[in-house]
Write a structure and sequence with these properties.
Cofactor: Fe(3+)
Shape: globular
Order of helices and strands: HHHHEEE
Protein name: Rubrerythrin
Structural class: mainly alpha
Organism: Peptoniphilus olsenii
Number of strands: 3
Strand order of the largest sheet: 2-1-3
Strand content: under 5%
Keywords: Electron transport, Transport
C-alpha cells in the first residue's frame, strides 16, 4: 500500500475511533442532563463512527491480507493469543514511551490537570499490560481467563480481578465506585 494512503488511513482510523468514544461520552452527559433522545442520537452516531473506523482498519491490509508489520505493529486482527500480545505491547508502548514524552511536555507547559490525567493513564497502562499477559497465559493453555470479576476504576482506568482491594492503588478511588464486568 502507498505510504501516504496508509498514513491517511491510520489517521482517519484514529479520528473515527476518537469520535466514537467522544460521542459515547457526550451521550452520557446528555442523559445526565435529562435528554434521553439526544443520548440515543449520540449513541447511533457513535456506532456509525465505529463502522467508519472498521472500514479504515480493514483497508489497511496489504495485498496478501496481512497488515504491514513495521507501520502497524500491534495492529490487526489475529488469533486471541496474538491479539493479546499486540494489546500488551501497545500498553507497554504507551506507558514507557508515549505518555512519558507527553507528560514531559505537559509539565514544561505547567498543565497540571493534563499531567495528572496522563500519569493515571501511564500507571493504568502498566497494569493493563499485566492483565493481558495473564489472559494470554490462560489462552495459550486453551483456557479462558479464570476470573470471577473484572473491576474497573472509573477515575483512572485501573483494572483488577481482586474484589478484596479496598481502593484503587493508583488514584485512591474507593472500591464501591468500581465498575464490575
Amino acid at each position: 500500500m502507498n505510504q501516504m494512503t496508509s498514513d491517511n488511513l491510520r489517521s482517519a482510523f484514529g479520528g473515527e475511533s476518537q469520535a466514537h468514544m467522544r460521542y459515547l461520552i457526550w451521550g452520557d452527559v446528555a442523559e445526565k442532563e435529562g435528554f434521553p433522545n439526544v443520548k440515543r442520537l449520540f449513541t447511533a452516531t457513535s456506532d456509525a463512527e465505529r463502522i467508519h473506523a472498521t472500514l479504515h482498519f480493514n483497508a489497511l491490509r496489504d495485498v496478501d491480507g496481512d497488515f504491514p508489520v513495521v507501520s502497524m505493529a500491534g495492529f490487526g486482527i489475529k488469533e486471541t493469543s496474538e491479539n493479546l500480545v499486540g494489546a500488551k505491547n501497545g500498553e507497554i508502548f504507551e506507558s514507557t514511551q508515549m505518555y512519558p514524552a507527553y507528560i514531559a511536555v505537559a509539565e514544561m507547559q505547567e498543565e497540571k490537570e493534563a499531567v495528572r490525567a496522563m500519569k493515571y493513564a501511564t500507571a493504568a497502562e502498566e497494569v493493563h499490560a499485566k492483565r493481558y499477559q495473564e489472559a494470554k497465559d490462560f489462552v495459550d493453555q486453551g483456557k479462558d481467563l479464570d476470573v470471577e470479576k473484572i473491576l474497573l476504576c472509573p477515575i483512572c482506568g485501573y483494572i483488577t480481578f481482586d474484589d478484596t482491594e479496598e481502593a484503587c492503588p493508583i488514584c485512591g478511588c474507593k472500591k464501591d465506585k468500581f465498575v464490575e464486568y
